[in-house]
Amino acid sequence: MTWTNATLWWLASGGLVIAELLSGTFYLLMLAIGTAAGALAAHAGLGPQGQMLVAALVGGGAVGLWHLRRQGRPGAPAAQANPDVNLDIGQTVLVSQWQPDGSARVQHRGAAWDARYAGAGTPAAGAHVIQAIAGTCLMLTPAAAAPHPVA
């Protein structure tokens, strides 16, 4: 059996797809598109340099476009404050007592969470709305003054 350049490109594409499935890194799938383009270039009769150029342009272009797409729309909230990313944004929690440093412990989804006051003025006990999540800390504003999260 003769291993042609196209065969090697197809094997590289398959390897990148398998690596993407194992890691979940969508960028590897974009590179697999580039190696598939290199295989098609080999089938079209281009030399090794042309195949590399096609693979680099298509794969690099796909990675660049995917990166731009992932940056999101201008004005879109950051992931930690985006209700499309985190369904806890906009949920109401009850704060029984605030600490002097603006922190509290609240119950949310059956677990105790750290919380920080993100509103204006002095925090008061009562209902608060989750505006963002920073790591494992809920950022809260008073329920009456909470702006509606961007949907």
What distinguishing features does this structure have?
5-stranded mixed β-sheet, 3 helices, 2 domains, alpha+beta, OB fold (Dihydrolipoamide Acetyltransferase, E2P), 151 residues
Report on the structure:
It is a single chain. The protein has a five-stranded mixed sheet, with no helix packed on it. It is built from three helices and five strands, in the order αααβββββ. With 151 residues, the chain is of the alpha+beta class. The longest helix has 23 residues, at 48-70. It has helices at 5-23, 26-43, 48-70; strands spanning 92-95, 103-108, 111-117, 126-134, 137-142. A hairpin with a 2-residue loop joins strand 2 (103-108) and strand 3. It folds into two domains: 5-70, no CATH class; 79-142, Beta Barrel (OB fold (Dihydrolipoamide Acetyltransferase, E2P)), CATH 2.40.50.140. This is NfeD family protein. Keywords: Membrane, Transmembrane, Transmembrane helix. The chain crosses the membrane at residues 6-22, 52-68. It comes from Pseudaquabacterium inlustre.
Span from first to last CA? 57 Å
Radius of gyration, whole Å: 25 Å
The tally of strands reads: 5
Shape: rod-shaped
Protein name: NfeD family protein
Keywords: Membrane, Transmembrane, Transmembrane helix
Transmembrane segments: 6-22, 52-68
Concise synopsis of the structure shown:
The chain crosses the membrane at residues 6-22, 52-68. The protein has 151 residues and is an alpha+beta fold.
